[in-house]
Amino acid sequence: MDRPTQSPNQAGAPAPHPMDARPLPSALAHTDEIVARLNGRPRAILLDYDGTLTPIAAKPELAILDAGVRDLLRRLETVATVGIITGRDMATIRNLIGVDGLAVASDHGFDVLLPDGHRTTVPGAEVYGAVIDALGSAAETALEGLEGAMVEVKPYSVAIHFRQTPDAQVAAVEAAVGDVIRDFPQFRAAPGKKVLELRPDMDWHKGSALLAIIEALGVDPDRTLFIGDDVTDEDAFRALGDRGTTILVAEEPRQTAARYRLRNTGEVARLLAQIYDRLT
Question: What's domain 27-122+204-279's superfamily in CATH?
Answer without folding.
Answer: HAD superfamily/HAD-like (3.40.50.1000)
